Amino acid sequence: MSKLITSIQESWHEFAVKASWPTMTELQKSTTLVIVGTIIFSLVVFGMDKAISTVLEFVYSIFG
User: Where along the chain do its domains lie?
Assistant: First the structure.
């Protein structure tokens, strides 16, 4: 049991003291980058979906 408590204490010490946390400016820049990347990725997937849908509808209209 003492090993478990020691392990938890060491983990907490490393988490609270030794870890380096980003500044608010760095955090805002990273968040903005993630949001912009997500929007771009979503638009690419949407465009691919629309293109494939259009091609398949055309093929179905020819053969169906």
Answer: 22-64
